[in-house]
Specification:
Number of helices: 10
Oligomer: single chain
CATH topology of the largest domain: FAD/NAD(P)-binding domain
Strand order of the largest sheet: 6-5-14-15-16-13-17-20
Structural class: alpha+beta
Number of domains: 2
Length: 374
Amino acid sequence: MPAIQNVGIVGSGAAGLTAAILLAEGGLDVEVLERTDGPSTVGSGITLQGNALRVFRELGVWEQMEDQGFPFSTLGLRAPDSDGTVLAVLDDQRTGGDDLPATLGMYRPELARIVRDRAEEVGVSIRYSSAVVEVVDHPEHVDVVLEDGTTRSYDLLIGADGLHSAVRQAIGIDVEPQPTGMGIWRAFVPRPAEVVQTDLVYGGPCYIAGYCPTGPDSMYAYLVEAAQDRHSERDSHLMAELAAGYGGPWRQIQSSLEQGAPVNYTKFTAHLVEGAWHRGRAVIIGDAAHSCPPTVAQGVAMAVEDAAVLAELLLRADSFDESILQEFHDRRVPRARKVVESSVQLGQWMLDGKKDADVPGLMAGVSALVSVPA
């Protein structure tokens, strides 16, 4: 019998629902607390590497994801010229194993729906409009005080509530994401027929111009620049002006932007909680514990790996003490640190204009690490 019987999870994103599914399948009662008033229906695209797909397959949702997304196993490099000249098409590392594609592009809200449906299927309860304001630890349980004044009690609380985690703050971990100096435009647009993989352009008006197909007719495109205060962050015409500096598929992307395709602009941040990720019977995972720019496309993968490792340790233990949570931390920190530091380093090389940086070596090192199951 598992060491704990009921678990509260704060946050209904990928990390929270992955932990919820695995723990519920292991026989635990699981309740997810979500501060918003319902499922999110907004977002653009997401790039999922093979090691993330390995975890989603464990959840039993891979076939649905493959059907709804766009799998591929190559990476294109294009020149920052008027034709978008293809420089190379490379076989990408299959970090989830040879039986999974290297990458899957998806529409983010569709991924959220698939995982949420699976959670509800295995008996997870999702409680909306449940913002956390206080966490009170006790020897045998943990209490969570919600914004509406009610209190929920659990054997264990998992904070999977993102970059600005209320649980992280409530348990006294004084770490916040810090800016890295870069910003990113993202747009969800129709997919040109020639886009069958992620293609990257280094240089031109921005540091990186890229896109990822997300379905038969859709993709998301992104432009990475030095961070700026973009007061009109949803103005697609600003992104269109930058897109005009690129050729090939970017011509159609530019046209979509000029017609008002939805865009957003965010600044890159990063953090890693170096000390313990828990206090008593409360523990943080995913973006609450570590985050990085999307330059190596490992953010979601690291989050769902956290959830899978924590669930594994909890379900195999026949008694609970904080050594389980310390083992979780010790197992995850080296991997998370490598991804965070590599993601930040890649951006810093661009900001510094370093022409001889070993980008292939950095990327190969990350791929080799995450190819080993967590």
